[in-house]
Design goal:
Strand order of the largest sheet: 2-1-3-4-5
Order of helices and strands: EHEHHEHHEHEH
CATH superfamily: Flavodoxin domain
Structural class: alpha/beta
Number of strands: 5
CATH architecture: 3-Layer(aba) Sandwich
Distance between the termini: 8 Å
Largest sheet: 5 strands, parallel
Bound molecules: flavin mononucleotide
Strand content: 15-25%
Helix content: 25-40%
Oligomer: single chain
Radius of gyration: 16 Å
Length: about 180
């Protein structure tokens, strides 16, 4: 059974990111995957300050919720990474989360992330895809650096209020099918 870790990087519960990530998770579960959802807004994830303890001892020096998440990432086959566009970048929650992937960049821990699949989910208010360009490049470059495989993108312009994406059934179908393909 494939294991999928679904990460909601918007602080808004039942918002567009949450709905889309959950729809991908639903598709994966329907095909037999085991899916765990993480709502980053519920967790305490402090910033990576570049202490590089992980490079010396293979462990992170920060005593927060990320310590319990590292094994979940290592044990998963695929990650779903969702963030809305916030000021043309990812949310602070998602940036803090990805910054802590320095742990996987040290030579001893690299095999724990290398080769894993990921999909990204990015809703935003403006109507042009250009708005999401920096977020997409942030993920493309960071995941490639970690030797992960970016296997799908759900980019949704024109959604602003909580739940606006529910008015876009074709996107929800695309998200569900992407989830099925992860399983
Ligand atoms: C702090 C903040 C910054 C935002 N910056 C942008 C932006 O630069 N471009 C844009 O199109 N939408 C921006 N938005 C709108 C969100 O991307 C949009 O409402 C999205 O659907 C929210 O997703 P959520 O429901 O998952 O939180 C911003 C929203 C907030 C709260």
């Amino acid at each position: 059974m494939n294991k999928v870790l679904a990460v909601v990087g918007s602080p808004r519960r039942n918002g567009n990111t949450h709905i889309l990530v959950s729809k991908i998770a639903e598709g994966a579960r329907a095909k037999g995957a085991g899916v765990e959802e993480l709502f980053l807004g519920d967790l305490t994830i402090t910033e990576c300050d570049g202490c590089h303890r992980c490079w010396q001892d293979s462990v992170c020096s920060k005593n927060d919720d990320m310590l319990g998440i590292y094994p979940k990432i290592s044990q998963s086959d695929a990650l779903i990474l969702g963030t809305p566009v916030y000021w043309y970048g990812p949310t602070g929650l998602m940036k803090l989360f990805i910054d802590r992937f320095v742990y996987f960049n040290c030579p001893q821990n690299r095999d724990e992330i290398k080769g894993k699949s990921a999909v990204i989910v990015v809703p935003f208010e403006e109507e042009t895809f250009e708005t999401a360009r920096l977020v997409i490049e942030f993920f493309e470059k960071s995941l490639a650096y970690l030797e992960m495989k970016l296997v799908g993108k759900i980019l949704v312009p024109g959604v602003s209020d909580r739940g606006d994406v529910l008015q876009k059934p074709e996107i929800l179908k695309q998200a569900y099918e992407l989830g099925q393909s992860l399983a």
